Structures are given as structure tokens and as C-alpha cells.
């Protein structure tokens, strides 16, 4: 199943933008209760101002809050980032540790976040059990458990360590684009023939196609072709389209507000 997903998503990658373990750790904390797109919009400003744990630990929480506001729960997240950075400075000399047992001692860092950082920033194999991975692992019959730690263990037994990090990306990509929580697009799913849960969602191919998201959505064929052709630049291409979509939304909001203003005038 992973082989098919790997062929279907040759451009799968960590969807949070980062250039160092510290940036990925911070971005992962910010991604709670929001989308990676929104996080990627604020982190360039945040890291330009606070490039490492020491700088962030010395920042005024209000300044952090102002920058990360669009990610929601910004007061709690600013506090978490501040405390987290202080601990990295105090206990690890300002350097994010590269071992699971050390990472999970940091405030607000659980196994999921630790595995994201290890797998993607340190090259240490890890399975990242987020909400998508947990749901799909159950639908695929890889586990019967709801407990993320048990899911991680069950899946680790099925795949060699070298596959773990990319497997996590493939499954999460599939969960975001095809195998949605409420209405999986079974009729347009590349692993339908192998999936014991085929039929949990829409099986009509045409109706299922309309449920697909991101670069698989109808009308985005050129984007997908571009991502497949430029696999190593897929993240950059994705960011470009996301920025364009965000600009369009902002323009639409402005037009609506302008229209509302005129109505009121
Ligand atoms: S067949 Fe349906 S339930 Fe199975 S992976 Fe595909 S979309 Fe998900």
C-alpha cells in the first residue's frame, strides 16, 4: 500500500517550512489547531526576527504574540514558545536535542512533535501519528487502536525503519487529499483495491473526484503535473500557489468589506 501511495505522491514532504531543527520544532508547536499554510505564512517573519532558541527566549511574549496571531491561540502558543526556548537554552545549550528521550522532556513536546523533528530535521526514522495517520492506519487495518503510541508501535512492526518517515508523509498526504475524516473519496482512491474500508466513503468515481483536495482537486491538473515534474521543488511550488490563493482571499475579503461599507454609506 505504501508503494502505491509513494508512486501517487512522489512529491510528498513535510508541509511545514523550515531550515533547521529549531525552526521545525517551533513550526510544529504553532501548527496545533491550525493549518500548515497559516503557519508557513507567519514563520518567515518570526524566524527573521528570532532565528534561534536564545533569541526567542529573550523576546517579549507580546512581540511573539503579535507575529503569530494568525495561527490562533496565540497567547498560549507564545507562552509555550517562550518557555520551550528557555528550556532549550538552559538544558541543551541553545541547541535542539536530536534524541527522542531528550525532546519529550521539553515543555509541550510529545512523541508526535518529537518524531516530526527527528524524522525531518535529523534524519532519524520515526512514525508521526497525527489525526490523519491514526484514522488511516485504522482504515487500512494496520492497527485497531485509538492510542497514538500503540498505533505507532503497531505500524513500526509492519514496515522497516527506513520507510517510517516517508510513510508518515504519504499517509498524511492521502488523509488530507483523499481519505477525509467524514467523506473519504473511495471512488477516486489509488489504494481502493487494497483497502479493507473501501465503501466507507463515496464510491461513485465522478462524485468522489469532486471530494478531492489541493493539487488533486478537479481543475488543478496542471499544478499536480508541475509538482510531479519538479518533485524536488514541490514545496516551493505549493507555497507559491498557497500565497496566490491567500492573496486572492484577502482581495475578496477587502472587496466584500468595501461593498459592505458602501451599502452602509
Ligand atoms: S478506499 Fe476509501 S477508506 Fe480506503 S483509503 Fe481509499 S478513500 Fe480511504
UniProtKB/TrEMBL annotation:
<keyword id="KW-0004">4Fe-4S</keyword>
<keyword id="KW-0456">Lyase</keyword>
<dbReference type="Pfam" id="PF00730">
    <property type="entry name" value="HhH-GPD"/>
</dbReference>
<keyword id="KW-0540">Nuclease</keyword>
<feature type="compositionally biased region" description="Low complexity">
    <location>
        <begin position="244"/>
        <end position="257"/>
    </location>
</feature>
<keyword id="KW-0378">Hydrolase</keyword>
<dbReference type="GO" id="GO:0004519">
    <property type="term" value="F:endonuclease activity"/>
</dbReference>
<feature type="region of interest" description="Disordered">
    <location>
        <begin position="244"/>
        <end position="265"/>
    </location>
</feature>
<keyword id="KW-0238">DNA-binding</keyword>
<comment type="similarity">
    <text>Belongs to the Nth/MutY family.</text>
</comment>
<feature type="binding site">
    <location>
        <position position="179"/>
    </location>
    <ligand>
        <name>[4Fe-4S] cluster</name>
    </ligand>
</feature>
<feature type="domain" description="HhH-GPD">
    <location>
        <begin position="30"/>
        <end position="177"/>
    </location>
</feature>
<dbReference type="InterPro" id="IPR004036">
    <property type="entry name" value="Endonuclease-III-like_CS2"/>
</dbReference>
<dbReference type="InterPro" id="IPR011257">
    <property type="entry name" value="DNA_glycosylase"/>
</dbReference>
<keyword id="KW-0479">Metal-binding</keyword>
<dbReference type="InterPro" id="IPR004035">
    <property type="entry name" value="Endouclease-III_FeS-bd_BS"/>
</dbReference>
<dbReference type="InterPro" id="IPR003265">
    <property type="entry name" value="HhH-GPD_domain"/>
</dbReference>
<feature type="binding site">
    <location>
        <position position="189"/>
    </location>
    <ligand>
        <name>[4Fe-4S] cluster</name>
    </ligand>
</feature>
<protein>
    <recommendedName>
        <fullName>Endonuclease III</fullName>
        <ecNumber>4.2.99.18</ecNumber>
    </recommendedName>
</protein>
<keyword id="KW-0255">Endonuclease</keyword>
<feature type="binding site">
    <location>
        <position position="195"/>
    </location>
    <ligand>
        <name>[4Fe-4S] cluster</name>
    </ligand>
</feature>
<dbReference type="InterPro" id="IPR003651">
    <property type="entry name" value="Endonuclease3_FeS-loop_motif"/>
</dbReference>
<keyword id="KW-0408">Iron</keyword>
<feature type="binding site">
    <location>
        <position position="186"/>
    </location>
    <ligand>
        <name>[4Fe-4S] cluster</name>
    </ligand>
</feature>
<keyword id="KW-0227">DNA damage</keyword>
<keyword id="KW-0326">Glycosidase</keyword>
<dbReference type="Pfam" id="PF10576">
    <property type="entry name" value="EndIII_4Fe-2S"/>
</dbReference>
<keyword id="KW-0411">Iron-sulfur</keyword>
<keyword id="KW-0234">DNA repair</keyword>
<dbReference type="InterPro" id="IPR005759">
    <property type="entry name" value="Nth"/>
</dbReference>
<dbReference type="InterPro" id="IPR000445">
    <property type="entry name" value="HhH_motif"/>
</dbReference>
<dbReference type="InterPro" id="IPR023170">
    <property type="entry name" value="HhH_base_excis_C"/>
</dbReference>
<comment type="function">
    <text>DNA repair enzyme that has both DNA N-glycosylase activity and AP-lyase activity. The DNA N-glycosylase activity releases various damaged pyrimidines from DNA by cleaving the N-glycosidic bond, leaving an AP (apurinic/apyrimidinic) site. The AP-lyase activity cleaves the phosphodiester bond 3' to the AP site by a beta-elimination, leaving a 3'-terminal unsaturated sugar and a product with a terminal 5'-phosphate.</text>
</comment>
<dbReference type="Pfam" id="PF00633">
    <property type="entry name" value="HHH"/>
</dbReference>
